[in-house]
Amino acid sequence: MDVLKTVAELRDWNRANGGNRPRVLVPTMGALHDGHLSLCDIARKKAGMTGTIVTTIFVNPTQFGPNEDLDAYPRPLEADLEKCRSHGVDAVFAPSDNSEIYASDASISISETSLSNHLCGASRPTHFSGVCTVVAKLFNLTQPDAAVFGEKDFQQLAIIRRLVRDLNLPVEIIAGTTVRESDGLAMSSRNAYLSPQARAQAPIIRQALGHAAATIQQGKFDESIGLVRKTIESAPLAKIDYIEIVDAETLQPISNLESGRPARIAAAVFFGKTRLIDNIGVEF
Ligand code: PAF
After folding, report:
1. Nearest protein CA to atom 5 of ligand 1, as residue
2. For residue 189, how far is its CA from the centre of ligand 1 (angstroms)?
């Protein structure tokens, strides 16, 4: 596995490996867990024997708000590289410095003005602009044919599909289903911040979403959000940031299920300073 620390090294690697297609990208911020590694496995299936997998590890500063966890974000690079190696990744691009990605006087960024108005975009107003900008840069830098993103970040996935559509980027977007701990908690690099008490309570998010999906499927749409709220509030350390039911494609809030249109129930919940997100699909 090649480890590339600079844009110049990456460009050399691209030239040397130009014919090994398809090239499949797995973009990450590191602190890799089984959820990320399942994305690498999906990438391998897509790449086949002739193709290559490139994983990027970059804690992107522009997607963190001023009071968020940029400095505290875990950066266990050596352990991450070992995990990539054991999952058949061909090259890791792990820029040694932010200046590899952002010029100090960078003045161009990408903004999304519709899908990011609700859910995480409402509480993190600059987040998706940072995500769109860095993902477009990573696509330009790594030149993939396809890229794999996890469904836990459902809003991010929808926005990246829109990014690719609206900027005519020649990259196929592949979704990976959420990987969960045995008690249902969605895997996330941020789970490592949870105190033992918070960790014990956090699976309530998935339980609440599951009950709500079942309630909607029984035709009781109006009761569902109240049910999620009540269930999550039964955990003493949980503070709800949002719970919304949205159209799975437009991400706009809905007040009933239109037959045939998939919907998503999504929640963000604080345990102390740690903000966890999860979502579940509802379909008729
Ligand atoms: O999902 C993530 O880890 C990040 O948002 C991404 C897509 C790697 C962009 O920094």
Report:
1. 131
2. 11
User: Would you call 87 a catalytic residue per the annotation?
Assistant: no
Q: Is pLDDT at 259 greater than 90 in this prediction? A: no
Could you report the per-residue pLDDT of 62-76, keeping only the tens digit for each?
999 999 999 999 999
Distance 135 CA to ligand 1 centre (A): 8
Out of 3.40.50.620, 3.30.465.10, 1.10.300.10, 3.40.1190.20, which CATH number does the structure's domain 2-176 have? 3.40.50.620
Pocket of ligand 1 (CB under 6 A): 27-29, 60, 63, 131, 134-135, 153, 156
Residues of the chain with CATH 3.30.1300.10: 189-282
What is the mean predicted confidence (pLDDT) over 22-51? 98
Q: What dotted CATH number matches 189-282?
A: 3.30.1300.10
Looking at the CA of residue 56, tell me the nearest atom of ligand 1.
8
CB 151 within 8 A of CB 157: yes
From the CA of 189, give the closest atom in ligand 1: 3
pLDDT tens, 214-228? 999 898 999 999 999
Name the residue at shortest CA distance from atom 6 of ligand 1: 28
CA pair distance 238, 278, nearest whole angstrom: 14
pTM of structure: 0.97
* 194, containing H or E segment: none
- Residue 29 C-alpha to ligand 1 middle, in angstroms? 6
Quick one: pLDDT band at residue 284, thresholds 50, 70, 90?
Answer: low
User: What are the C-alpha distances in Å from 188 to residues 51, 108, 169, 229, 240?
Assistant: 28, 30, 28, 22, 18
In degrees, rounded to 5, the angle at the alpha carbon of residue 38 between the alpha carbons of residues 161 and 168 is 20
Confidence of residue 133 (pLDDT cuts 50, 70, 90): very high
